[in-house]
């Protein structure tokens, strides 16, 4: 850490970890409800738990991205953040929106639009929050000594993510139009602009951790950005197959979304190659694990498991089943959760001055969480495929099918327990680092 203002990142990361714990709690509530233990039903029915689970996911990831930007941008731009005070104001307003939304969901104050459940009135607060965040980041970058490709890609990702939130705020009477634009947010986030955010963070981490020249790493970043836009934009069509829009989307969506795994493949190859090439290896092994892990697991979760149901011929059967949940878990985990955990693992020792670079707890956290998540993915997958056959092929009643597959949720809960253990270990390690301090020295801020 070279600039004192980078320390604000710590509090965004801490907030992130708090919400992650809550998200997992709601995951368990749903898992248990699925096997008949639904004691909380009166206050937290499945649909409420689901909305809270997925929204907490989005907010903790966004808080992680914001922390990452507050850490990375000053270092890349080589100057202090323009205002630390406003960054704290922004964190507090983020927490206010998040907490209000989550509490509101328990009182049925939410909209039935998957992932965009936040009531539109609250959306205006989101806008103010995001504008403040972007202002701080972009002005810092603009006034800085240098504008690196890494910083630009990260900032563009964040800026476009904010702009793409707008189509989701527009009111439409038609269900079809509403759905059409909902995907501009949901799809173009995770399979478009968030990939730029991931690419930017990945590139920053690889520069620091492998010691490979910035020029080489940033050339790869261009390739990734290119592949992302080439495939991801028209790839939106894989959500338009049978929703009531023009049939042309069957072909366009099929072809372009089938190309989407290439961007994730490039990211995995990029990370592994830079690691191999790197001579000056950084001692922070835990950060390296999460960085390489993110690049590889995202290829499996987003690339391969996304491909598995992206062609219209398969999606006709799998749409909206637990096959989607299978893919959703490993994709979000690999691409976005793991990259946030990677930047936290890298930044923490630099902010706190405690060099817990390679603790047994840190390694155990990595492996336990990942093996647990892979187990969960398999459990969702088996349940999903069984659901597809029973419900869609053999036309069994929806609820009968759910009873039939509930046994797989026992497996899910076992694997989720392993996963949660890993997360608890990670947070224990986080806590062990202590609070950020101005004296913390960074051995690698000159790269
Ligand atoms: C990190 C990147 C990705 C993440 C986080 C992600 C996550 C998700 C999530 C959460 C859903 C459910 C959305 C909803 O129903 O509202 C979904 C749906 C879907 N994803 Fe992805 N995804 C990613 C990348 C991909 C890629 C690269 C492909 C294709 C190769 C893909 C193919 C699909 C398809 C076809 C659906 C629709 C499933 C259905 O019809 O129910 N995804 N994804
Ligand atoms: C203890 C851990 C977890 C458990 C038990 C759990 C369980 C569940 C369950 C039961 C659902 C609803 C599936 C359905 O519709 O029936 C769900 C949805 C979802 N969860 Fe989790 N989850 C956990 C952790 C996570 C994590 C760490 C992530 C992200 C990294 C995540 C991402 C999602 C997403 C994206 C959905 C929506 C999927 C879709 O649109 O189909 N979950 N989860
Ligand atoms: Fe998509």
UniProtKB/TrEMBL annotation:
Gene3D superfamilies: Cytochrome c oxidase-like, subunit I domain. It is found in: Membrane. Residues 8-447 form the Cytochrome oxidase subunit I profile domain. Keywords: Electron transport, Heme, Iron, Membrane, Metal-binding, Respiratory chain, Transmembrane, Transmembrane helix, Transport. One of its GO terms (cellular component) is membrane. One of its GO terms (molecular function) is cytochrome-c oxidase activity. The chain crosses the membrane at residues 12-37, 57-74, 86-104, 124-142, 149-166, 186-207, 219-242, 248-275, 287-310, 330-348, 369-390, 405-428. GO terms for biological process: aerobic respiration; electron transport coupled proton transport; respiratory electron transport chain. Its main location: membrane. It is a multi-pass membrane protein. It comes from the Bacteria. PANTHER family: CYTOCHROME C OXIDASE SUBUNIT 1, NITRIC OXIDE REDUCTASE SUBUNIT B. Belongs to the heme-copper respiratory oxidase family. This is Nitric oxide reductase, NorB subunit apoprotein. It comes from Bizionia echini.
